[in-house]
């Protein structure tokens, strides 16, 4: 199983999509001889799906087609060499995956056919057991359905621990601590912008374009910041965890 779980799509407006993960993504594409990818763009509400696919084609150097260009979304996943799941609204994305019958299809593609999965922002969220640690608003009246569960621990993308002057609402740290208080047996990995987790051949690696840490939230424990994925040893089942 190979997963790329990115906090966000780009670090600057004029940067190519996923460019901060180019070394690892291009190496994977070359190693596997991948020539095409399928984009699941359901999270995009106000953007152009076709343009997003073209941007990804230019960024990754392969042909990228959206699920809408196939006879059916299910057929798209069944033919995919690489699955790309875009950022946007996580609630809408997860609901559409269920409505189109893609939850099991993607799980089988990734786990049985070893199709690589690349998800950023909302696409990162839905790779975890549930979407309860998304930052997005539930723009549809959908229930909290299970997500893909490809990665065993909840992730909070776009993590920010800055305190904004004059803001009297809860901070992200407080919200994530509340999640752990309500769900004391679960943990949350908080990924800053420009960082991602890479699972490959049962190995877990962490990368940050800015050399920043990630945080782990657990009930009853101090919030801890790490640079080394060995800190996740008790949370994930991967046997190989190089720094």
How does this model look, in words?
The chain has one domain: Class I glutamine amidotransferase (GATase) domain (Rossmann fold). The protein contains seven helices and eleven strands. It has helices at 22-32, 49-60, 73-79, 90-99, 102-111, 122-125, 172-182; strands at 2-6, 36-40, 63-66, 83-85, 117-120, 154-156, 187-190, 195-200, 203-208, 214-218, 224-226. The strands form two sheets. The chain has a seven-stranded mixed beta sheet with strand order 3-2-4-5-1-8-9. The protein has a four-stranded mixed beta sheet with strand order 6-7-10-11, covered by helices on one side. Helix 2 (49-60) links the parallel strand 2 and strand 3. Helix 3 packs parallel to helix 5 (102-111). The radius of gyration is 17 Å and the shape is globular. The mean pLDDT is 94.
Architecture blueprint of SSEs:
Elements: E1 2-6, H1 22-32, E2 36-40, H2 49-60, E3 63-66, H3 73-79, E4 83-85, H4 90-99, H5 102-111, E5 117-120, H6 122-125, E6 154-156, H7 172-182, E7 187-190, E8 195-200, E9 203-208, E10 214-218, E11 224-226
Helix pairs in contact: 3-5
Quick overview of this protein structure:
With 243 residues, the chain is α/β, with parallel strands linked by helices. The chain has helices at residues 22-32, 49-60, 73-79, 90-99, 102-111, 122-125, 172-182, and strands spanning 2-6, 36-40, 63-66, 83-85, 117-120, 154-156, 187-190, 195-200, 203-208, 214-218, 224-226. The chain has a single domain (2-232), classed as Class I glutamine amidotransferase (GATase) domain (Rossmann fold).
């Amino acid at each position: 199983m190979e997963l790329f779980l990115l906090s966000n799509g780009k670090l600057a407006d004029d940067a190519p999509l996923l460019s901060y993960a180019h070394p690892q993504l291009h190496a994977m594409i070359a190693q596997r001889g991948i020539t095409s990818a399928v984009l699941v763009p359901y999270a995009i509400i106000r953007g152009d799906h076709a343009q997003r696919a073209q941007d990804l084609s230019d960024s990754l150097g392969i042909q990228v087609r959206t699920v809408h260009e196939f006879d059916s979304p299910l057929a798209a996943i069944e033919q995919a060499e690489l699955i790309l799941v875009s950022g946007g609204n996580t609630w809408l994305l997860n609901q559409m995956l269920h409505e189109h019958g893609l939850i099991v299809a993607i799980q089988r593609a990734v786990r049985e056919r070893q199709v690589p999965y690349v998800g950023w922002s909302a696409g990162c969220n839905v790779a975890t057991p549930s979407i309860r640690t998304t930052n997005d608003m539930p723009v549809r009246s959908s229930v909290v359905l299970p997500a893909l569960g490809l990665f065993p621990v909840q992730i909070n993308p776009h993590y920010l621990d800055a305190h904004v002057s004059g803001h009297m609402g809860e901070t992200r740290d407080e919200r994530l601590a509340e999640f752990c208080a309500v769900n004391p047996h679960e943990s949350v990995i908080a990924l800053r912008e420009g960082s991602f987790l890479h699972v490959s051949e049962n190995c877990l690696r962490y990368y940050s374009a800015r050399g920043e840490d990630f945080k782990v939230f657990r009930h009853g424990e101090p919030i801890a910041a790490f640079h080394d994925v060995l800190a996740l040893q008790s949370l994930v089942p991967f046997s190989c965890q190089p720094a």
